[in-house]
Amino acid sequence: MKITQYIENATDTLFSIEILPPLKGKSIDSIYNGIDPLMEFKPVFVDVTYHREEYIYRKRTDGGLEKISTRKRPGTVAICAAIMNRYKVEAVPHIICGGFNKEETENALIDLHFLGIENVLALRGDSIKNEPQFNAEPDGNKNALELIQQIINMNNGIYMDQELTNPFPTDFCAGVACYPEKHFEAPNITSDLNFLKRKVDAGAKYAVTQMFFDNSKYFEFVAKCREMGIDIPIIPGLKPLTTKKQLSILPKIFAIDIPEELSNAVEKAADDKAVKQIGIEWAIMQSKELKQAKVPVLHYYTMGQSEATKVIASQVF
Question: What is the pTM of this model?
Fold first, then answer.
């Protein structure tokens, strides 16, 4: 069933999570161990991230360097199939632009369609670590808008090969990312909202926010979206702080603000165990306020670590 259908049929705020595929060479049991403790809260869907290929340079015997492609966390599609089989919940794979040309994207979507996966989250994805900016593959989608357009084309039976006879249309419910504090590459919030509007006009059916720690930023963002005619469900994404290092790491990576009250409490904490408790309590406060405001879903970035999310969910759901 589509995410939007779950939201339409719900009488209260729903619960969902996002997980990472295990590192290459690790067992899928690490996925199950991260999901099992959260099943009592009946997650309506589980997002599974996709990690694009990266490159390393290995020295050859002749002294030159050989560029080698590597992927640290493979298995997104298989993990989605395993989750749906084991838990009977919707699995939502991330579909990214980076590392794929349009034909490869089309083939990946066909695989997902054959597996009975109805929901996808369409993202541009990050640039490769050693590249200063995102570079699309030759004949690849340059951004999430183009990716959404390709997905909706397939929903309308329009494939790359226009000579196909009576191609079968897919039926994906495509979600997108959104940024209450704007995407770090956007010059301003209005520009970012305009781009989100274009993704919605192209066919995006729901949006999931980047993590935030100040609920007022989410509420202001939603209000601005509604003023612009963006009427899709906007799902807040939450992540509790767990270490002092995150005070500097998260703002740098995601271009987000951490409220002064929260940062002061974390800085005064004796150790990371105390920080984790502070982060949990803050996330509980955020979650309760958002739930009271009747947000459609509370989406937690668990990254495979269920302990903190379980404590939060037990106080909210």
Answer: 0.93
